[in-house]
Amino acid sequence: MKDHGIQVTIVSNNNEKRVKLFSEPVHIPFIYKAKKPMGRAFNKAVSDMQLKKEDVVVIGDQLMTDVLGGNRHGFHTILVVPVAASDGFFTKFNRQIERRILGALKRKGHIQWEEE
Question: Which residues contact 89 (CB under 8 A, 6 or more apart)?
Answer without folding.
Answer: none
